[in-house]
């Protein structure tokens, strides 16, 4: 009893609160209130309004600016008085206000409005008639639907409205009534999209009994009707439907079979896989492709047998999930030739079959280079961090650079699977530390560099590589220097410059190129490492020995906006092989120098380029800088006066 009293009291308080809020909002609806305030009041009345609000909202229905807000409030209110107010609006409103009220009555399902809506549906105003037809369809009573059916002969919109009514009946579980309406539209004069939609609805509303109509529609010469059937085929539920379609598949025309097969694959269910496998066995490529979506272990022997003839078979084998499929493919490796093994290895790689890794590691040493290469390529997908020692051995002992590159890719991929990023270089550093021969150390720098670049640097790796640049073997030193030159940040730049000063070829040129590259990254703002790029490039300038190195240095100086760089570039303007590139680099760094203490020197350099440079584009850019610089100086002088 106490619980009941409490709930009753709470409901009473809520109602009282709604009534009080309603009166407050009605006060805001007065004519002299701002429009935005009145609109917000209508919106809130939709939530808390009591019957007391209905007359005020009804009075606003005809207003151009507030009518929409008032109508939406009435539409949302649960009060019967709101229905009466909206119905009353049917007699006095016109145009968009009338159409809005019609729509609201349809949304509310107001059966009492049906007679008036029926008259409007037969009236002369086309827009109001269409709105009334759809409102009647949403109301959905037998009387309302009868009004809509009565307009089928003279208003094309009636067909669409009748479809709305049919859909609502179907949604309420009244399939038999829906079927009659769908059939009436598709058998009538509507045609076009309405007839197509009605056909789809008629199939779906019949359930499993809709299969004959589905097949009839599917065999239509009209592509639009055929597409309706293919869509309905995917939507119509029931195992009986699937069984009927499977039974009909072989009796269909060759043009229809792949379309229906695709729909069956989308449906799934008993019998579909067997049907697809039969089609695949007969050489149907669409069916072979479909096995990648729905295939199982029963499909594997079929696909294995088709590998030599079907382009789709490898893709489908790669997609069918399950460790048992991996096992069947691994077993097939022993019963085929080298070409067959190569294909199967690639499939295992595409599957990411980790259970195949040990066999792939064995095949990576196969005497047939195609088999060996395929296995190394697949290992990039299947190998795990625990396999890194063996992968490193594959790289170190590779017979040629192609096989070594494939092993390096597998090393990189397996390293990336180490969960702690800072430990990803450790297996390679350990191999570098324990390798006893130069031939075992040299190959390690390439995958090590790749892992370091992915990490954007590594202190432990940097220390190890710097140490290797002092190795007694020239090949080890060269590999280490090349690795440093590709470092992801410029902390190795000064080390490389020092090596370029003391080493002989080819280490000297490799070190110089690496140092200049790293300095360029800093000068261009792509690397934030603290480094005096100008100082490094100035020292590198004394080491250049050929036109290629001069071109490299000129390009780097084009990122250094300092007068010292301009002077170095001026000197390169006298060297025929790089004079145009030097002029272009000078033009690039000149703008900020034109407005400082070195403006005169910079202007003089640009004047020489504008007067003597052979490249017309570079000449024009120099001349433009001189013009804009002069204009800026002139404007600055006027401001000072």
Can you tell me about this structure?
With 641 residues, the chain is mostly helical. It contains 39 helices and no strands. α16 (257-267) packs parallel to α18 and α26 (401-415) packs parallel to α29 (445-455). The longest helix is centred in the first third of the chain and has 27 residues, at 2-28. The radius of gyration is 41 Å and the shape is flat. The N and C termini lie far apart (95 Å). Mean pLDDT is 92; it is low at 1-17 and 637-641.
SSE layout:
Elements: H1 2-28, H2 35-48, H3 54-59, H4 67-76, H5 80-92, H6 95-108, H7 114-121, H8 126-139, H9 142-150, H10 157-171, H11 175-186, H12 192-206, H13 211-218, H14 223-235, H15 239-249, H16 257-267, H17 272-281, H18 285-294, H19 300-305, H20 312-319, H21 323-333, H22 338-351, H23 357-363, H24 369-382, H25 388-396, H26 401-415, H27 426-434, H28 438-441, H29 445-455, H30 459-468, H31 474-485, H32 493-502, H33 507-523, H34 533-541, H35 547-557, H36 563-572, H37 579-593, H38 599-612, H39 616-640
Helix pairs in contact: 1-2, 2-4, 4-6, 5-6, 6-8, 7-8, 7-9, 8-9, 8-10, 10-11, 10-12, 11-12, 12-13, 12-14, 13-14, 14-16, 15-16, 16-18, 17-18, 18-20, 20-22, 21-22, 22-24, 23-24, 24-26, 25-26, 26-29, 29-31, 30-31, 31-33, 32-33, 33-34, 33-35, 34-35, 35-37, 36-37, 37-38, 37-39, 38-39
